[in-house]
Amino acid sequence: MRAYDIIYKKREGQKLTKDELEFLIKGYVEGDIPDYQMSAWAMAVYFQGMDAEETADLTMLMAESGDMIDLSPIKGIKVDKHSTGGVGDTTTLVLAPLAASAGIPVAKMSGRGLGHTGGTIDKLESIPNFNTSLSRDKFFDNVNQHGVSVMGQTGNLTPADKKLYALRDVTATVESIPLIASSIMSKKLAGGADAIVLDVKTGNGAFMKDFDSAKKLAEAMVAIGKNLGRNIAAYITDMNQPLGNAVGNALEVKEAIQTLKGQGPEDLTELCVELGAAMLQLAGEFEDLEKGKEVLRENLKNGKALAKFAEMIRAQGGNAEVVEDLSLLPTAADTVEVKAEKAGYISEIKALDVGLAAMILGAGRENKESKIDLAVGLELKKKKADRVEVGDALALLHYNESKNLEEAKAKLLSAFTITEAKTKKNKLLYEIIK
Ligand code: URA
Ligand code: CA
Question: What are the structural domains, with CATH classification, of the chain?
Answer without folding.
Answer: 1-48 (1.20.970.10), 77-321 (3.40.1030.10), 332-417 (3.90.1170.30)
